[in-house]
Design brief:
This protein is an alpha+beta fold. It is 49% helix and 14% strand. A hairpin with a 4-residue loop joins strand 4 and strand 5.
C-alpha cells in the first residue's frame, strides 16, 4: 500500500501512471522492501511520453539478493517487455534493470540496499512513494537544502591529459583513421570540455542531459563548433575549436582557483600540429 499520492505529473500519461501503481503495489506488499522513491522527470521535471519511470526500490540489506533474484519475474508481471537488460552505464548499475514495455512505457527498476542511502543533494529532488518507517521522508527532507555542484577532482591533471588526448586524435587524423579521429573528438568533448563547463558554471554533472537549457548562447555556439562531420578538414577544425574552448574555460577557472599553467608545452604541440597539417594537406 502506498503511503504517498502519485504525483500530478502522471495525470497526462495514464499508461505510465498505471504501470507505476502496479509496480508500487507489488513492491510495497513485500516486507523486505523498506521504501520506494521516484526520481527523474516525473518527480521533479517536465515529463513527456518519452520520459522514464525511475523507480528506486530500497531493500533491507539482508533480503537484497533474494529480492533482486526475482527482478525479471517482477518486471514481466507488469506487462510484456520488448527490451530488458541490466544496465552497466552507471556506478552501481549492476542493480539497475531497464525495461521497455510493448506500450512504450519505459521503467528503470533501480534496486538499492538500505545501507546505501545517505544524505546527499541527489535525494533532495526525489518523491517518496512508500515509506512505512518514515526513513525516506527524513532522507529527502535533509537532502533538500544541500547544494549540488560539480568540482574537478584535479584540474591540473585534466590539463595534462587534454594535451595528450589532442595529440593522439591528431595522429589518428593524419594517418587517415577518420572514424577513430571522430571518436576522439567526441571523447575530448565529453571527458574534458563538459567537466570544465560544469566546474566553471557550477552545473550539476548530468553529462549532455539538459545541457541546451543550461548554457548561454555564446557557450552553446562554441560547443557546437566542436562537432565534426565525416570529413578530414571538419575534424581538424573541430579539434582546433576544442583546444580554443578548453583554454578559454581553463584560464577563467584556473584564475578563480589560483592555479597557473606554463603554456610552453601546449604551444609546442599546437605549433607542431599546425605545421604538420600544413605540410600534409
Amino acid at each position: 500500500m502506498l503511503t504517498e499520492e502519485i504525483p500530478a505529473s502522471f495525470e497526462r500519461f495514464p499508461g505510465h501512471r498505471a504501470r507505476l501503481i502496479e509496480a508500487s503495489t507489488i513492491f510495497s506488499s513485500r516486507d523486505c522492501v523498506a521504501g520506494l522513491l521516484l526520481g527523474g522527470s516525473f518527480a521533479y521535471g517536465n515529463p513527456d511520453f518519452y520520459s522514464d519511470i525511475d523507480l528506486y526500490i530500497v531493500v533491507r540489506d539482508e533480503h537484497f539478493d533474494v529480492l533482486f533474484a526475482e527482478h525479471v519475474e517482477i518486471a514481466n508481471s507488469l506487462g510484456k517487455p520488448i527490451s530488458a537488460f541490466i544496465a552497466d552505464h552507471n556506478p552501481g548499475g549492476l542493480y539497475d534493470y531497464i525495461v521497455l514495455y510493448d506500450d512504450f512505457v519505459k521503467v528503470d527498476f533501480i534496486y538499492l540496499r538500505s545501507s546505501q542511502l545517505h544524505v546527499m543533494p541527489k535525494w533532495g529532488r526525489f518523491r517518496v512513494l512508500y515509506d512505512p518507517e518514515a526513513v525516506l521522508s527524513t532522507l529527502v527532507s535533509c537532502s533538500r537544502n544541500l547544494q549540488a555542484t560539480f568540482q574537478l577532482a584535479d584540474p591540473l591533471v585534466l590539463n595534462q591529459k587534454f594535451r595528450g588526448w589532442c595529440w593522439y586524435v591528431f595522429g589518428k587524423l593524419m594517418r587517415g583513421e577518420l572514424w577513430e579521429a571522430l571518436e576522439g573528438v567526441s571523447f575530448i568533448r565529453e571527458r574534458a570540455l563538459l567537466p570544465m563547463i560544469n566546474a566553471k558554471n557550477g552545473f550539476v554533472d548530468e553529462g549532455y542531459r539538459r545541457l541546451e537549457k543550461k548554457m548561454d548562447d555564446e557557450l552553446a555556439h562554441d560547443l557546437q563548433l566542436t562537432v565534426a562531420s565525416y570529413d578530414k578538414e571538419a575534424v581538424f577544425s573541430a579539434l582546433l575549436n576544442e583546444i580554443t574552448l578548453f583554454r578559454d574555460l581553463r584560464n577563467e577557472l584556473f584564475l578563480s582557483l589560483n592555479l597557473t599553467v606554463d603554456p610552453t608545452a601546449e604551444e609546442s604541440i599546437d605549433q607542431q600540429m599546425r605545421a604538420l597539417w600544413a605540410r600534409g594537406n
